[in-house]
Amino acid sequence: KGEFYSSVDSMQDLAQVEQELLNATRSYLETQQQQLDFYRRYVEQIKREHEWATAQLKLDEYLGHPLHAFRLIKRLVQDWDAIIFEPILTNKPREDFRQFIEILTRDLGYPDQSELQGVIKGLARLQRVYNLTTTDLADGIINDLHYDSELEWRECYEIGVQLFDLGEYQRSLEWLQAAYELLRNAIAENNDKIQYLSDIREYAAMANFELGNPKRAGRLLNQILDPEPTHSAQQTRKYFENREPGKNIAEKNPSWFANYTRLCQGKRLPEESSGSPLKCYLDGKRHAYFTLAPLQVEPVHLDPDINVYHGMLNSKQIYSIFVEADKEEMVRSAVSGEGGKRTVRDLRVSQQTWLNYESPVMKSVSRIIQFVSGFDMAGAEYMQVANYGVGGQYEPHPDYFEVNLPENFKGDRISTSMFYLSDVEEGGYTVFTNLNVFLPPVKGAMVMWHNLHRSLDVDVRTLHAGCPVIVGSKRIGNIWMHSGYQEFRRPCNLTSDSYKSLAYRDSV
Ligand SMILES: O=C(O)CCC(=O)C(=O)O
Ligand SMILES: [Fe+2]
């Protein structure tokens, strides 16, 4: 079983796991309770018999009676063993419970430590891209919207600890601070949690040390050790004494980062608008297929041209696509790494599968692509259906290969047609970092652009990204068309027009 946090769909399996755990644990507790009641009744009964015996006669007189002697010996030889020892020591309900858990987690899967890291990295990514403050997030507030879920001090503490382990010391400190405040409020009501303050302080000390604040780190340790000199924070103090504190170097963001975050937040630069204002129009001429239901075209950029075609798939068709995708296994998305190798990295957090064009719904998809793009489907890769988890994203990248072209196709990816298969409650925009364009996902719409110039050189300006999903489940379907089959469809231009995008080279 694969990973859970990288897609909302697979998170649903986990919800089922927990539901099963809940049911199994409740019935286990009930069975155990009945067993305990049974033991207790037996013990009470024997106790009464002892009391009765001692109340009546002297014990030796009582045991001198043959039936009494028989009863005591029978109890010790048989009853204690059958009624108490055996069932308590074998504990069948516990054994059944253990087996059930084993089978359940084998069949449905179970998350491990790396999943916890993954989801916490996702939270930190949302904070970074959308400027969400730690206190707001802990209070369940995202972009001024109040979601009905607040974190407890333990949860904030766990996030702080994990971020520390990931080396995100500044962010870690914020979460530890939030945990500290929440715990202090809790202690005001109930004093028995006071020792946990020291745990938080110790981590805060370590984060401060790594951030180049050894003095503050030392003060925090003193707060722990002055009242309690034997606390394990002594070890941490020794550790600091033998080590250079970290240096507070501000993390250097990649060159695209500022544009990425701005556009992900739905902010355009006004001065950089793409010439004449772009208006939506209806196109009934492109193909006879669209005469009765003209294409609703929303041009979003002119050179290179990016168009959104609305209402290309209805809910029923989208549902059928999911049915097809469900037959395949979704896997964590990889990206092309060094030397064309596929690797799983945080720059792309989603799960995906590939669909051919044989099912009825995929035949319609194929027709749509053909009619809108004018391209020959011989050059089309299968449709890649992807599902992002919360915090899931795809950092800026081009869709063309340029080098290490796949061998099973002729030419590079001349165009991208991307269907939005869901709406997204918050976040998850598609952005073109060099073109000042952001697109909120609209279910049923398709966005299309060319990744290559007419000269078939790569168009660097098409660098784009899928922003982190804040709330919701984002699903898309990508179809990439290769240039080798389109000689008659998009005649290439012998004079190179790639000078247009040369200036953007560095941003890739
Ligand atoms: O998720 C998005 O909006 C963009 C996805 C994308 O660029 C890709 O899958 O190549
Ligand atoms: Fe892409």
From TrEMBL:
Enzyme class: oxidoreductase
Subcellular localization(s) per the UniProt record: Endoplasmic reticulum lumen
Alphabetical list of PROSITE patterns matching this protein: FE2OG_OXY (PS51471)
Sorted UniProt keywords: Coiled coil, Dioxygenase, Endoplasmic reticulum, Glycoprotein, Iron, Metal-binding, Oxidoreductase, Signal, Vitamin C
EC number(s) on file: 1.14.11.2
Cofactors that this protein relies on: L-ascorbate
Pfam families reported in the protein's UniProt record: 2OG-FeII_Oxy_3, P4Ha_N
Major location (coarse): endoplasmic reticulum
Domain of life: Eukaryota
Function: Catalyzes the post-translational formation of 4-hydroxyproline in -Xaa-Pro-Gly- sequences in collagens and other proteins.
Name of the molecule in the record: procollagen-proline 4-dioxygenase
Source organism of this protein record: Drosophila rhopaloa
Phylogenetic classification of the source organism: Eukaryota, Metazoa, Ecdysozoa, Arthropoda, Hexapoda
